[in-house]
Design goal:
This protein has 11 helices and 17 strands. An 8-stranded mixed beta sheet has the order 8-7-6-5-4-15-16-17, sandwiched between helices. It has a 7-stranded mixed beta sheet with strand order 1-13-14-12-9-10-11, with helices on both faces. It has a two-stranded antiparallel ribbon with strand order 2-3. Helix 3 runs parallel beside helix 11. By secondary structure, it is of the alpha/beta class. A hairpin with a 4-residue loop joins strand 7 and strand 8. The radius of gyration is 20 Å and the shape is globular.
Length: 338
């Protein structure tokens, strides 16, 4: 089992350095220099950080969705939307990299207003906005059956997903132990949900993943249980946490499957070097993607594990953090941070 605490060697962050955060005397002058429209959205605060990166051009920008591209109201801020369109017009390829299923991420991608590719299900599926599939990394059904069988105590927290768009795309035994936050997500996806008891009966084809969802405390127990299953080398375990919502998700995928591996595969396919890739994220499941990118940028609202890495920190998702990172990608030597 490959966990997020077991990182491969040789994934240094590349040519990114941060200077000490300073206050500038003239805020308005700095804002005009950083923003092509001469101002930042009103949500941005008045502290200025000085950040410098190497001059290698950014050709690929990979951004997470939840907690990164989406603001706390689960919308794309206008400043971030305009910045993404500006980056696209400047020739930078934008790819959305998310733990969401492809279909669940589509409404977000469609708002951007240009064609792009999505890496979904934490790296398991790479597919275009138009539906063309580049790569799938599915979990063998027998491996998933072993995982589910070993996690009997967490049956009420177990979800299995498949790469299809019919009823049975999302399979679970019951809803009662999933927690209110994830139940709301499931309620939005009811047309795809099938209840199967036992859940192993649904494994007639290879799934995308098994997922365990619930409160932070409950998923800490699940993570410890998974570590004791003894599946080293056969699965990858990723976690995503939202402490303010008391929500944690543990994704169990095929061995070697992650946002980072998928982004590396896509960059190689498109002919981009690591130093030409910027990645932006906020949560534990973004770590492999950030480790691969030559220019990792984390959100001001990122989890403590990411904040401890010494990576460049942009604004939070409540203050157009994506727009600030894009200014950096477009060649600004400095940009505002929270």
């Amino acid at each position: 089992m490959v966990s997020q605490s077991q990182r491969a060697a040789g994934t240094a962050s590349g040519g990114v350095t941060c200077s000490t955060v300073k206050l500038r005397a003239s805020l308005n002058e700095q804002r005009r220099r950083l923003s092509p429209r001469g101002r930042w959205p009103d949500t941005c605060d008045d502290k200025i950080g000085v950040v410098k990166i190497s001059k290698a051009p950014i050709r690929l920008l990979a951004t997470d969705i939840d907690g990164t591209l989406l603001n706390p109201q689960f919308q794309i801020s206008q400043g971030d939307l305009m910045a993404l369109r500006r980056a696209h017009a400047a020739g930078i390829e934008i790819v959305l990299v998310t733990g969401r299923r492809h279909t669940f991420a589509l409404p977000i991608a469609q708002q951007l207003g240009f064609d792009l590719w999505l890496i979904s299900s934490n790296g398991a599926v790479t597919r275009s906005l138009a539906g063309e599939t580049f790569h799938r990394d599915l979990m063998p059904a027998e491996t998933c059956r072993t995982v589910c069988g070993a996690m009997q105590e967490f049956r009420g927290n177990t979800v299995v997903t498949f790469d299809k768009e019919t009823k049975g795309t999302i399979v679970l035994e019951r809803l009662d132990e999933l927690g209110s936050s994830i139940r709301r997500w499931l309620e939005k996806n009811m047309e795809y949900i099938e209840f199967v008891v036992p859940i192993e009966k649904a494994l007639v084809s290879d799934p995308v993943q098994a997922m365990f969802c619930g409160t932070m405390a409950r998923m800490s127990e699940a993570l410890r249980a998974l570590e004791g299953v003894g599946m080293d080398g056969t699965v990858t375990v990723l976690r995503t946490e939202y402490p303010e919502r008391d929500l944690s998700m543990i994704d169990v995928l095929n061995a070697g499957c992650s946002k980072g591996h998928a982004l590396e595969r896509w960059a190689a396919h498109r002919g981009y070097r690591r130093e030409e890739v910027m990645a932006v994220g906020d949560n534990h499941n973004d770590i492999e993607m950030l480790e691969f990118a030559g220019h990792p940028v984390i959100m001001g609202n990122a989890c403590e594990e990411l904040l401890s890495r010494g990576w460049t920190v942009t604004r939070g998702n409540d203050a157009c953090g994506i727009a600030a990172a894009i200014d950096l990608a477009l060649g600004a030597e400095t940009f505002i941070v929270g």
